[in-house]
Design brief:
Elements (H helix, E strand, L loop, with lengths): L1 H25 L3 E2 L2 E2 L2 E2 L3 E2 H38 L1
Antiparallel strand pairs: 1-4, 2-3
C-alpha cells in the first residue's frame, strides 16, 4: 500500500509538472504590466502568472498562521480573565 501511494504521488507530481510546462510554453507573449504608474519589465505572461501563484501559495499559509496565533492569544486571554 505504501508503494502504491508513492507511485500515485509521483504520477500526480509528473502530471502537474507537465501541465506547468505546457502552460509556460503556450504563454510566451511578452507583456509589461503597469500598476499605479509603476511599469514592470517585459516578461512572458507565464512568468507573471506563476509568480502570482507562488506568492499566493506563500501568503495564504502565513496569514493562516498569523490568524491562528491571534485566535489562540485571544482565547488564552479570555480564559485567564474568567478564572
Amino acid at each position: 500500500m505504501r508503494n502504491f501511494k508513492r507511485v500515485l504521488l509521483a504520477v500526480v507530481a509528473l502530471v502537474l509538472v507537465l501541465a506547468i510546462l505546457a502552460f509556460v510554453l503556450e504563454n510566451q507573449q511578452s507583456v509589461s504590466l503597469v500598476f499605479v504608474g509603476w511599469s514592470t519589465p517585459q516578461w512572458a505572461v507565464s512568468v507573471y502568472i506563476l509568480g502570482a501563484l507562488l506568492l499566493g501559495l506563500a501568503v495564504g499559509p502565513l496569514l493562516g498562521l498569523v490568524m491562528s496565533r491571534r485566535n489562540k492569544h485571544r482565547l488564552g486571554r479570555r480564559t485567564s480573565s474568567l478564572g
